Amino acid sequence: MSDALRRRAVLALPYLWLLLFFLVPFLIVLKISLSESAVGVPPYTPLVQHGEGGWSLHASLDNYRFLLGDKLYIVAYLNALKFAAVSTIFCLLLGYPMAYGIVRAPRRARGLLLLLVILPFWTSFLIRVYAWIGLLKGNGLFNNFLLALGLIHEPLPLLNNAFSVYLGIVYSYLPFMVLPLFAALERLDLTLLEAAADLGCRPWQAFLRVTLPLSLPGIAAGSLLVFIPAVGEFVIPDLLGGPDTLMIGKVLWDDFFTNRDWPIASSVAIAMLVLLLIPMGLVRRLLQGESA
Amino acid sequence: MTTANTASPYLSLQHVVKRYAPGAAAAVDGVSLDVAEGEFFALLGPSGCGKTTLLRLLAGFEQPEEGRILIDGTDMAGVPPYARPVNMMFQSYALFPHMTAAQNVGFGLRQDGVPRREIASRVAAMLDLVKLGRLAERKPHQLSGGERQRVALARALVKEPKLLLLDEPLAALDRKLREETRFELVQIQRRVGITFLMVTHDQEEAMSMASRMAVMSRGRIVQLGTPEVVYESPANRFVADFIGAVNLLTGRVAGADGSRLLIESAETGGRFAVDHAALAPGSEVTVALRPEKLRLDGAGPNRLDGCLRAIAYRGEASTYEIELATGKTLRATLSNTARGRAPHAVGETVALSWEPASGVVLTS
Q1: Which terminus of chain A has a lower count of CB atoms within 10 Å, N or C?
Q2: Of the candidates B305, B336, B332, which has an alpha carbon nearest to the alpha carbon of residue B321?
């Protein structure tokens, strides 16, 4: 095998992977979203049918029209966007000082601090979210503690509301914000801050004019890593949420497994994917403008 | 040690001491120095001699443990870097990568709240001064090393500081560009009239650019003066050895003849004369002789025969390595004034000679 061929073969592997495990499933979901629900196995009508007049195509956008017509889906989608966006902002506000502190920490402490950020991953995500129920519920750890101190006389409503969903998302996704920010801030040349000071910047001005713009790629990467999975989040609103925290991921789950309406569920999945491309495209353009 | 002869020095360091850790050796150990307004001053020394620390003390990035720093009569103690009338050109240039050349140059002016229009005209004028007008909209990564160096200079100059600090300004340039830039920096300094204080480890750079220089070693200034004085009359062995090439001959004073000393040296296997004030007979001395002060024509009161061991041809001059009968090796540099073949060949016996005025007696 020649070198060029071998190189192409190496490159082909990841493409093959993406093709098999991303593009093909995507096309299957797309196909299902264009069909109609049916009783049977599989629970949807075939896209191409062989009838009296030969082969015929039965594709319709009815499912998408249904999504647009039903307020539930729009509300759930907007809700998901809101939860994801607000959580992303909280992750950024919490994660930036954390990443900054780790970068500025003495070299020996740095590894340990990073380890602490990654440590939660050693426990299953599901179990960690369950653990929050025990902490937040009416007779949970926090409420009992506050009651015992006499600070409150009735348990606080900490669970099954917007608060617990925000808490769950921020808690779960914070490491995805901290790590890219750490990477971006670590590359920052400290001489640049001295140069800014030399040219008249107080420390906070140097932060705004030098550190912040130079860490923008990290902010963008971290925000995407939090925002995108948070929009489709199902476990957290399901376990920690309540009636007023309906998110699109939960709706999708219910359509698929409770209603067994695969075509509608598939069209929800496709719509979510398409709408997520918008923020990704925006960030991409922002970053390209920055590096140009 | 001499100081500037102005009535009130523009920059004055008074017994400045800086230690990086308590109990550690002082990085700057009791430095006193006066620099006059408009001077191009160079701090010269090997790495680790404290010259960069001194620069950082002036910029305000470090605070001295002892001593005072006065700029134009104002004590800089406790004044943070952003409030000092000083700007620095960093060795790495430290250009902001997310800003264009023009934005980099205008950074300090914007920080000071200078009106937009004035910023634009001052930045343009400064970029013209460093001949970068046409590259104003480029970002640092689109500029060559030499162009980046000019942006860094323009950025430090545009605020018209009372004192401009230059940390190894030419170190990152290649040789040819470095030599061109030397003259240009001096010209720019004359044109803007700002006091320059440059740190360098390159003695040629310091000598060719500075009006006065201080040679530093282990946190102290060991000699201060014009490049000519430092080169021709080094204060001690360290300076003689660090600045330029030198032949060092050790011996003891054998006698005096007016303003001339006779030195008895085992290294030359005899006596030679050197111009110097009287010293007690028998005192141990070192005599420094610059290679270019030696001749190979045998004329003069000090004459030694030796064998030519090697010739280093450098184009404009050649350095000859001559081994004396005692085994001591001396170097002589002669300019190649005549075109054609070298006047001497390796293996030849040559007669070295020099004037008594050429030697410098060093006692430390």
Answers
A1: C
A2: B332
| Domain match, B115 and B181 both | yes
Residue A121 has pLDDT above 80, yes or no: yes
Residue B181 DSSP one-character state = H
Distance from CA of B56 to the nearest CA of A (A): 10
> Strand B66-71 vs strand B163-167: parallel, antiparallel, or unpaired?
unpaired
Closest residue in B to A191 (Cα) is B94
Which residues of chain A lie closer than 8 angstroms to B107, CB-CB? 196, 199, 209
pTM value? 0.83
- How many other CB atoms are found less than 10 A from the CB of residue B307? 15
Is residue B217 domain-shared with residue B279, that is, in the same domain? no
Q: Does residue B291 share a domain with residue B200?
A: no
Mean pLDDT of all residues in B169-190: 90
CATH number, position B189:
3.40.50.300
Predicted local distance difference test score (pLDDT) of residue A289: 66
Identify which of B86, B111, B159 has the shortest CB distance to residue A201: B111
Query: Which structural domain, as residue segments, surrounds residue B109?
Result: 11-241
The pLDDT assigned to B6 comes to: 46
Residue of B61, B98, B159 to mutate, testing the A interface (most A Cβ within 10 Å of its Cβ): B98
Q: Which amino acid is at B258?
A: G
Find the chain A residues whose C-beta atoms sit closer than 8 A to any C-beta of B. 189, 191-192, 194-202, 205, 209-210, 213-214, 290
Per the prediction, chain B carries an average pLDDT of: 91
Q: How many CA atoms lie within 13 A of A141 on its CB side?
A: 5
* B339 shares its domain with B215: no
Q: Which CATH architecture has domain A61-291?
A: Orthogonal Bundle (1.10)
Q: Which of A194, A205, A213 sits opposite B111 (nearest CB)?
A: A205
Out of B200, B220, B241, a domain closes at B241
What CATH number does residue B318 fall under?
A: 2.40.50.140
Instruction: Identify whether the C-beta of residue B248 lies closer than 8 Å to the C-beta of residue B331.
Output: no
